[in-house]
């Protein structure tokens, strides 16, 4: 990677040192000697400094580590090739035309569009998820350039836990193309939270017009909040839960991205997306990863009970089973990408 200017790196190093001295729990360490640009500030014999959200690595610069620690996300430009993205797009279109059947795949339709009398092929689909059995789409999850960043958050044993290709449709006038502000951890019955990360790649330019991601920087440092369906006049898509109460004055960032740009973000980061005000479909592909050292938890008696109930009802119909646990639904979808499958 291109080395940062020494003066700029020195300032970032000092800020990083100050920040990590305030973090109270971590499984990670960083040594100044691991990044040559830091040696002007710290000697190679310096004691390890603690990080909470990233693991020791040779990839992230001090500026990038600091940014993720403070904000809960990091955007990497031009990470996935146009060739790969075009292949993912073609496979998605084949799935929509029912030319290929993928075991376990879930096809979702926008609540407004699904009521139309007839909508052909991909125009009827706003999302597919659980494509772990699709050789072509799952290739995204194993791209070396994606995994090298993922390991900075999960460590070397990497599980792909949740896969999606989002096809945000032009809004039908009901504002249903929005995605409510939420935390991804609401859906996950596994921990520890800091060893989970999402990779989200734009398959074309995304901006405020077609409904780019909106994030609340720093919200990942909080706790998991209560979620439920928002009371939207035009209706809400299935399983699109939103945070019940968050500070509307919290600064927000609209992540405008070019084709191939990828954002990595923490599962407690509050985020969502706006309406697609264009006539085209806004596509993105994503995967939630977790360390295979993570473990399942019982969410009964917690704010996650409502999503557990809804997921189990869907799973019972999908798998025609009399009894299935919330953890089972994730174990069925989880797939090892790299290293050893230990717990998940």
TrEMBL record:
One MF term in the entry's GO annotations: L-ascorbic acid binding
Coiled-coil regions listed in the entry: none
GO BP annotations, alphabetical order: fatty acid alpha-oxidation
Pfam families, per the entry: PhyH
Pathway(s) annotated for this protein in UniProt: Lipid metabolism; fatty acid metabolism
Keywords (A to Z) from UniProt: Dioxygenase, Iron, Metal-binding, Oxidoreductase, Vitamin C
UniProt enzyme class: oxidoreductase
Named cofactor requirement(s): L-ascorbate; Fe cation; ATP
UniProt-listed Enzyme Commission number(s): 1.14.11.18
Metal-binding keyword on record: yes
CC per GO annotation: peroxisome
Keyword Metal-binding assigned: yes
InterPro entries: PhyH, Phytyl_CoA_dOase-like
Reaction equation(s) it catalyzes: phytanoyl-CoA + 2-oxoglutarate + O2 = 2-hydroxyphytanoyl-CoA + succinate + CO2; 3-methylundecanoyl-CoA + 2-oxoglutarate + O2 = 2-hydroxy-3-methylundecanoyl-CoA + succinate + CO2; hexadecanoyl-CoA + 2-oxoglutarate + O2 = 2-hydroxyhexadecanoyl-CoA + succinate + CO2; 3-methylhexadecanoyl-CoA + 2-oxoglutarate + O2 = 2-hydroxy-3-methylhexadecanoyl-CoA + succinate + CO2
Family: Belongs to the PhyH family.
Protein name: Phytanoyl-CoA dioxygenase, peroxisomal
Species annotation: Solea senegalensis
């Amino acid at each position: 990677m291109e080395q940062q200017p020494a003066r700029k790196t020195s300032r970032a190093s000092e800020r990083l040192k100050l920040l990590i001295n305030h973090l109270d729990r971590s499984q990670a360490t960083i040594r100044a000697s691991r990044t040559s640009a830091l040696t002007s500030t710290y000697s190679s014999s310096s004691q390890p400094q603690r990080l909470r959200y990233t693991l020791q690595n040779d990839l992230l610069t001090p500026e990038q580590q600091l940014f993720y620690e403070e904000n809960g996300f990091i955007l990497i430009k031009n990470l996935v090739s146009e060739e790969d993205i075009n292949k993912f797009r073609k496979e998605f279109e084949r799935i929509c035309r029912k030319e290929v059947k993928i075991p376990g795949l879930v096809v979702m339709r926008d609540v407004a569009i699904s009521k139309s009398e007839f909508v052909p092929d991909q125009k009827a689909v706003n999302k597919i998820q659980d494509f772990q059995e699709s050789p072509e789409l799952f290739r995204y999850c194993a791209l070396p350039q994606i995994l090298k960043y993922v390991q900075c958050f999960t460590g070397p044993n990497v599980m792909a836990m949740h896969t999606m290709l989002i096809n945000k449709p032009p809004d039908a006038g009901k504002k249903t193309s929005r995605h409510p502000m939420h935390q991804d951890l609401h859906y996950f019955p596994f921990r520890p939270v800091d060893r989970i990360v999402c990779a989200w790649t734009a398959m074309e330019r995304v901006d405020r017009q077609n409904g780019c991601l909106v994030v609340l920087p720093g919200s990942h440092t909080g706790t998991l909040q209560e979620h439920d369906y928002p009371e939207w006049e035009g209706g809400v898509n299935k399983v699109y839960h939103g945070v019940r109460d968050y500070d509307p004055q919290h600064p927000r960032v609209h992540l405008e991205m070019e084709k191939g740009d990828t954002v990595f973000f923490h599962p407690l980061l509050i985020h969502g997306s706006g309406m697609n005000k264009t006539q085209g479909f806004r596509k993105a592909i994503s995967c939630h990863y977790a360390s295979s050292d993570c473990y399942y938890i019982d969410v009964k008696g917690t704010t996650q009970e409502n999503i557990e109930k809804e997921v189990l009802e869907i799973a019972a119909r999908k798998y025609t089973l009399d009894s299935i646990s919330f953890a089972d639904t994730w174990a069925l979808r989880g797939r090892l990408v790299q290293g050893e499958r230990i717990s998940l």
